[in-house]
Amino acid sequence: MRPIIWLGVPVVLVAILAAVLALYRNSRIQLSKSSKNLHVVLIGASIGQSWHLAEWPSRTRTPGFTAESIAAWQFDKTEATEEVLLRPAVKFRPNRTYLKSLLQPPRPPDIVILKECSSYFPGDLPAYKESVRSWVRRLQDRRLKVVLATVVPVTKSRAAQEPRKQEMLLDYNRWLREYATKQTLPLVDLEAALRTETEGSYLREDFAAPDGSHLNPSAYAVLDRTLSAVLCAVTPPSVCRTAPARTATPLP
Predict the structure, then answer these.
(1) Which helix (H) or strand (E) holds 42?
(2) DSSP characters for 57-77?
């Protein structure tokens, strides 16, 4: 009988550990729900990652928010959107990130920003539009506030390397503005914040990284202020009441 007893020990230990993790997880979830800060989740790619949104509330002195960026390295943000909707649950993956999430469940968002990158242009514009509509519907069905973001343009020299990239990107942005207006959705107009005033609406050279597509610290300082202005306009005054004039410290 002893072998049977010893075989049962690991099962009991696993059950106890699972129960402890469940209790800890539930306490973290309740703590997250009780937070007075609004949590912002940006679903994007490289520019979103380099923005370091977790530090954005402190950089702009808007302590009423917490923020994070989720990377989805293709135009299709369906999987990332669905994973955000699962929160605080996490899709199973056999890796360290999943195990960490059992102890620190990701916080459900109050606001979701959908952002695309210039890398996906030119592309299938009708399919792009339908995808955005579907993501907005899914998020709104869960009563989440959705914010759209225009695509950051590329510099004139970068646009010359890939015909129709800039033109289609601007067509997408024009449609996105119209769609946001019709659906009464807030819009973070990254293009307008960083573009030249000349014909072509290219990314300003003084905001561009050497590749002509990505951004430098000066550009991110502008985006910080742009994001603060939009979010503070669509959230209760108490969220931004401690914010001074829209100032931001450039990223290091």
Answers:
(1) strand 38-44
(2) HHHHT-TTEEEEEEE--SS--
> pLDDT per residue over 127-148, tens digit each?
999 999 999 999 999 999 999 9
Question: CA–CA separation, 52 vs 65, rounded Å?
Answer: 14
Q: Which pLDDT score, from 0 to 100, does residue 103 have? A: 82
DSSP state letters, 184-243: T--EE-HHHHHB-SSTT-PBPGGGB-TTSSSB-HHHHHHHHHHHHHHHHHSS-HHHHTT-
CA distance 16 to 1: 23
Listing DSSP states for 88-120 in one string gives TS----SSHHHHHHHHSPPPPPSEEEEE--GGG
* Residue range 37-240 in CATH 3.40.50.300: no
Beta bridge partners, 187, equal 148
Distance of CA 88 to the CA centre of its chain: 16
pLDDT at residue number 11: 46
